[in-house]
Amino acid sequence: MHKMLALLLLAGCATTSSIAPLRTSPGHVYKLADPGREGTESCTLMLILPEGAVPAGAEIAAFAGGAELERRTVSAAGVRAMTIQASAGKVLRFQVRRPAADTFDAVRGIVTMTDGRVAPFDVPVATYTPKTKLIFPLRGRGLISSGGVNDGGHRNSSGQFALDVLALTDDYAPVICAEDKNECSAGFGRREIIAPADGVVVKAWNDIPDNVSWENVDAKTYTRSDGTVVDTGNSVVIDHGNGELTLIAHMKQGTVAVHEGQTVHQGDRLGLLGNSGEAYGPHVHIQLQNGPDPRRADALPLHFENGPWRLVRGMYFNAK
Fold this sequence. Notes:
Layout: H1 2-10, E1 29-30, E2 32-33, E3 40-48, E4 55-64, E5 67-74, H2 76-82, E6 83-86, E7 89-99, E8 106-113, E9 118-126, E10 140-146, E11 163-167, E12 192-194, E13 199-204, E14 234-239, E15 245-251, E16 263-264, E17 269-272, E18 284-289, E19 299-300, E20 316-319
Parallel strand pairs: 1-9
Antiparallel strand pairs: 2-3, 3-7, 4-5, 4-8, 6-7, 8-9, 10-11, 10-20, 11-18, 12-17, 13-14, 13-16, 14-15, 15-18, 18-19
């Protein structure tokens, strides 16, 4: 109870009607080193708002070892801009960035609603080291075209640390002709996608048509006849047996070489690079998650034993 009172006092709201503490999606919040050379690290909080609640302002503070490092006030216009629709419902998205030397380990605060109620939040922040020794699922030359949530990239619950990667030619070119068609991609149907680690395939899709345009993607293309939406396209989820699973997505239709229940070993062929699902151009998408269903799992930070050494947009690499 003392912690709840402290949170209310943080915002000067000790006598205001409060509601249940806000939960986050994903349920665990991890911080990463930021792109660039500023020596900072950041985390992103996705606070799930109660049904019908409209935020009118917030107080948010970063802590390290119980000591407050920084506090900021967010205006009504600010929280409106930060409120988005997600699979968990309406969420308020905050990003907290601090110098790495601060080693911040918690974010606490209060969200005030338009009806005068306040909701506290007290969120532990951790650094995560993957247990699975992963190799990159695409050998050879490539380019990270989209990174994680702290790199202006993926933001969904299971994909906050996901990567999108283009395959490149030996001369580091992403295309081999100048038309908006899959065959002009350096990797489409040419580059093999491999298992990043040993495990058991728990999900596999192989019948999603590839998008014909790189710009106009129609959800009907990746909606199956039974109404199932497979925005990951032709994809595979591998359970590594330690609470970690990888999702490898957007492979070419008809090339997925594994099936559900099959045991795979690191380096085994999964399929060929494609442009299926919600993919704007041929690429491979990879993420680490804590459950089999990407719609419900939580994201886990990635690391690869064979590069790229920095998982940020614009990073060229040559994975061996």
